[in-house]
Amino acid sequence: MEFLAEYASFLAKTVTLVVAILVVLVTLAALRGRGRKTAGQLQVSKMNEFYKGLRDKLEQSLLSKDQLKSLRKQQAKVDKKQKKQPEEKPRVFVLDFEGDIKASATESLRHEITALLTLATPADEVVLRLESGGGMVHSYGLASSQLARIRQAGIPLTICIDKVAASGGYMMACIGQKIISSPFAILGSIGVVAQLPNVNRLLKKHDIDYEVLTAGEYKRTLTVFGENTEKGREKFQQDLDITHQLFKNFVAQYRPQLDIDQIATGEVWLGVAAVDKLLVDELKTSDEYLSERAKQAQLFHLHYAQRKSLQERVGLAASHSVERVADSLWGRLTQQRFW
């Protein structure tokens, strides 16, 4: 027993020493890298090869050796003919946007769009696979402005929605010349919402004073801790109404076929109903649309990968992780749940 106790003590000291050395090394590396902005990298993959790989795997599993050999010979002849008489196929650039409450994916989207605009022409097409239930106005306004760059360059933009494009998500979607959604995707929610608790009465009950000092009549309209006034509520509601009107104008600009006053009520519709409301143009999944396009065009998937800092790689970015969790929980609490 004495030996085990000594061994346990030695092991604990060794582990403590190793952990301490690692902490010092990571801290030094973090301090050395402070202020440096790590550049990301643009990743490009050929989606045609992905679809071809799926087909080849299925053929190998289902066809006999003779059938497979005959098929390969036919394909070789076709490939040889195409090499002699190369066919100039149009290009389709595929992007993804998975939106959170802060539209964080905009950081990658902006670089992807900057890259493709250096080569894309009006003969090409950009397809954005969009999933977002909306979020902060300024964040989704920036994301939408990035997509507007594609329209301004005269390049066809198609938006594919498989699950949801609501509120800020639909603000992005409406910029596409063509909007395609799956039958049960959630669309719309062209409205503005703001909510916050007020604990002023609770503070007063416990004799706690909270002072709010401002310079400017409407610097603070509603607060969490201070006492809210009717005048402040009216001003806050006025700001919401102005934002809503700007939202409506934006959607109407890019999708003039909509009866905007009928649609911009904050309601949502499923894809099958959204077609009748002209919120979308066609019912189809992104998989179906892209697999069809792969038969006629070259598909390139673009993704700008952000390089993680050393702190993130070794798990020291705790504050960043907590912030992400908090944003996710707040998004779930504030976003209306559908079915």
Explain how this protein is built.
- The protein has helices spanning 2-33, 47-62, 65-84, 106-116, 137-152, 168-173, 200-205, 230-254, 260-263, 271-276, 286-293, 310-313, 318-334, and strands spanning 41-46, 91-98, 125-131, 157-161, 164-166, 178-181, 186-188, 268-270, 282-283, 298-305.
- Helix 4 (106-116) runs parallel beside helix 5.
- The strands form two sheets. The protein has a seven-stranded mixed sheet, with helices on both faces. It has a three-stranded mixed sheet with strand order 5-7-8.
- The protein has 13 helices and ten strands.
- The protein is α/β, with parallel strands linked by helices and 339 residues long.
- It is flat and about 90 Å long.
- The chain has two domains: 41-189 and 267-310, Alpha-Beta Complex (2-enoyl-CoA Hydratase, Chain A, domain 1), CATH 3.90.226; 191-257, no CATH class.
Radius of gyration (CA) equals: 27 Å
CATH class of the largest domain: Alpha Beta
Q: What are the segments in which pLDDT stays under 50 over at least 5 consecutive residues?
A: none
CATH topology of the largest domain: 2-enoyl-CoA Hydratase, Chain A, domain 1
Distance between the termini: 61 Å
Strand-residue proportion: 5-15%
Strand order of the largest sheet: 1-10-2-3-4-6-9
Helix and strand succession? HEHHEHEHEEHEEHHHEHEHEHH
Mean pLDDT: 86
The helix-and-strand class reads alpha/beta
Q: Which percent range fits the helix content?
A: 40-55%
Number of helices: 13
CATH H level, superfamily name of the largest domain: 2-enoyl-CoA Hydratase, Chain A, domain 1
DSSP, total strands:
10
For the largest beta-sheet, the strand count, sense and barrel status come to: 7 strands, mixed
Based on the coordinates given, report the CATH architecture of the largest domain.
Alpha-Beta Complex
